[in-house]
Amino acid sequence: MSILSSIMSTARRRSPWVFHANAGSCNGCDIEFMACLTPRYDMEQLGIRHEASPRHADIIVVSGPVTRTTCEALETVYGQVPDPKVVVALGSCPASCNVFAGSPTIVGPLDRILPVDVYVPGCPPRPDAIIAGLVEAAAILAGDKPRPAPGAAQLGTGGAADRTPR
Ligand code: SF4
To answer: Ligand 1 centroid vs 118 CA: distance in angstroms?
Structure first.
């Protein structure tokens, strides 16, 4: 690995920037995600920064079951995030559509639309489980952990504090 590649890898592992996309969630997962920014959980102490623009992000966190009205915007956002990038499915909705499964307004789950690298289960997941998922995403981004094959990402444990998905 060249010196430049080594520096880039370290930066991605220690300071990933995260863009959050709401693809039709009930806002439960979004509130828990925002709690990660509060002093109690403080994900920035790990170097994980919440970024408002997808063009500056490394990681896309998606909440919600992916509705028809959000699908196109989600694909646009994915295209705007520079490579390499990692997709994190936040909560049970992007993983399985959860209670919204079967609705004609839903086009998810998320892996029908985007390649998912990390799942954070729960309805909603707790902030510490979300941060654990982001740390895993940073490891994939830095090349320390292999990227799962398409469709092969597994549901994580979400840590001891995870809540059982519906
Ligand atoms: S997983 Fe639960 S809390 Fe999160 S968006 Fe879906 S219904 Fe809401």
So the answer is: 17
User: If you measure from the C-alpha of residue 28 to the centroid of ligand 1, how many angstroms do you get, rounded to a whole number?
Assistant: 5
* 102 CB-contact burial (10 Å; exposed 0-12 / middle 13-18 / buried 19+): exposed
- pLDDT digits over 124-134, tens only? 999 999 999 99
Count CB-CB contacts under 10 A for residue 54: 19
Q: Which of 89, 147, 146, 152 is nearest to 122 (CA)?
A: 89
Secondary structure letter of residue 147 according to DSSP: P
Instruction: Provide CB contacts within 8 A for 23, sequence distance 6+.
Output: 62, 63, 64, 65, 66, 67, 70, 71, 74, 94, 108, 110
11-147: CATH topology: Rossmann fold (3.40.50)
User: What digits encode the pLDDT tens for the residues 59-94?
Assistant: 999 999 999 999 999 999 999 999 999 999 999 999
Token pair 């998320």 is found at 110
Ligand 1, pocket residues at CB < 6 Å: 25-26, 28-29, 63-64, 91-93, 98-99, 123-124
